[in-house]
Design a protein that fits this description.
The protein is an alpha+beta fold. Helices cover 33% and strands 28% of the residues. The chain has a 7-stranded antiparallel beta sheet. The radius of gyration is 34 Å and the shape is elongated. It starts with 27 loop residues before the first helix and ends with a helix. The N terminus is likely disordered.
């Protein structure tokens, strides 16, 4: 989900619209964010399509229906908050969007206009969004109060949430101070109140905001954290900061255009993050054979040992390449076509062999990797022959490569076809000899 248009503290993104039957009220989901089910009436149902991302990452189009209800328990996306999921008469609602003063519910089963229906919300998803959204309000207010850091936009992501701050940098000390302050306010159990004000209410002038959407209708919704902040917002929120449980700020990232992204988790997401981290810690303790406080030092020692082993292995491989080159050069089979394969090795290994041999009369076909799977290959020899044969060798091995100055090398998918390459090279040599 992309960053939403700024809505807090100075640029609200409002989606609070009345339904025809209750012109002074917002949607039921906004009037009571804790409601999990209720009964309402179907107003209309029309054929529609919904574009979704399929399991293979490609876009798919679903056929279904847009259902409009007299009122809705399912929040339509807006203000940086994703839409709810839930059911209407046990029929899954796959998307909820706001269209003017109504909410469209996409289902794949039609519903009869005028019929009474039972609407249920996916409570786990709803409460998670309430925690993240109220957490964003709290962090934004504290960051502004403590350091004058203004929020320009925010994103309620699937795994983490991000607040975009209007500053090129935020120090670790500032992050720690913000985190400490917001958690103190959670422990203070500060209430969160929601008011609906009419456009001509004088209190509207006291609420921070930067105008309303063009299609706004009905009351203005104001979310207030007692003694901390008051702001326009359309989303669902907790009624007391104690429902946030805890907020963890994971850090910051460089944002766009001299902005900084502050990454945070609130409520149950913190518990899930701790559970994952604890699982990783237990696994590392078992693997490293030491306590959690020694993990970093143990990994550093392993990295140093690995670097030393890689260096020694590289030196040995180079020595082996030189020895292999001399053995091939002194072999009674030397001449014409020379083929050599080794399971362990790399491009440098093959190039050292070719450098040591330095023959321009012999076609040298070298390969490393799985004998029946993938690997690397190098063809060296007379420049004209290599230029002609290189692409054909790559084709036989179902790979690709490139070359110049008497060498052609690349990757191969079918090393099992090396014997076919040998026959190809020998046929070429035989043809050249016959022509001479």
């Amino acid at each position: 989900m992309k960053f939403a248009p700024p809505h807090f503290p100075s640029a609200p993104k409002l989606c609070l619209l009345p339904v025809p039957e209750t012109p002074a009220m917002a949607f039921r989901c906004q009037r009571d964010s804790y409601a999990r089910e209720f009964t309402t009436t179907v107003v209309s149902c029309r054929p529609a399509e919904l574009q979704i991302e399929g399991s293979n990452g490609k876009k798919e189009v679903l056929s279904g229906f847009q259902v409009v209800l007299e009122d809705t328990l399912l929040f339509p996306e807006g203000g940086g908050q994703p839409d709810d999921r839930g059911t209407i008469n046990d029929i899954s609602v796959l998307r909820v969007t706001r269209q003017g003063s109504q909410a469209d519910h996409f289902t794949q089963t039609p519903l009869v206009p005028g019929s009474q229906v039972q609407v249920r919300v996916d409570w786990e998803r709803r409460f998670d969004h309430m925690q993240q959204h109220s957490g964003q309000h709290l962090i934004t207010a504290v960051a502004d109060h403590l350091f004058g850091l203004k929020t320009t936009s925010w994103e309620l992501g699937r795994l983490r949430s991000v607040i975009e701050l209007d500053s090129p940098s935020v120090t670790s000390e500032q992050v720690a101070a913000i985190e400490q302050s917001v958690n103190e306010k959670i422990r203070d159990r500060l209430p969160v109140n929601v008011q609906e004000l009419s456009l001509d209410d004088p209190e509207v002038e006291q609420v921070r905001g930067r105008g309303l959407p063009d299609d706004h209708a009905g009351p203005i919704r104001v979310v207030t954290i007692k003694g901390v902040d008051s702001n326009m917002c359309c989303g669902t929120h907790v009624s007391n900061l104690s429902d946030l449980q805890v907020i963890k700020i994971l850090g910051t990232e460089k944002g766009k255009k001299n902005k900084t992204n502050l990454i945070f988790l609130a409520g149950n997401r913190v518990l899930k993050w701790m559970e994952r981290s604890h699982g990783t810690e237990k696994a590392l303790t078992a693997l490293l054979k030491c306590g959690a406080e020694e993990h970093v030092e143990a990994v550093k020692k392993l990295q140093n040992s690995t670097k030393l082993l890689q260096k020694n292995n590289l030196n040995l491989l180079r020595d082996l390449a030189v020895h292999t080159a001399h053995s091939l050069r002194n072999s009674p089979d030397w001449g014409g076509v020379v083929v050599f394969h080794r399971k362990e090795g790399d491009s440098e290994f093959m190039n050292i062999i070719a450098n040591e041999i330095g023959s321009e009369e012999t076609l040298l076909f070298l390969t490393v990797g799985d004998e029946k799977g993938a690997g690397l290959f190098l063809l060296a020899g007379p420049a004209e022959a290599v230029e002609t044969l290189g692409p054909r060798v790559a084709e036989v091995l179902e790979g690709k490569g490139a070359g110049k100055k008497g060498r052609f090398q690349g990757k191969a998918a079918k090393m099992s076809r090396r014997t076919e390459v040998r026959a190809l090279l020998q046929d070429y040599i035989g043809t050249q000899s016959a022509e001479e």
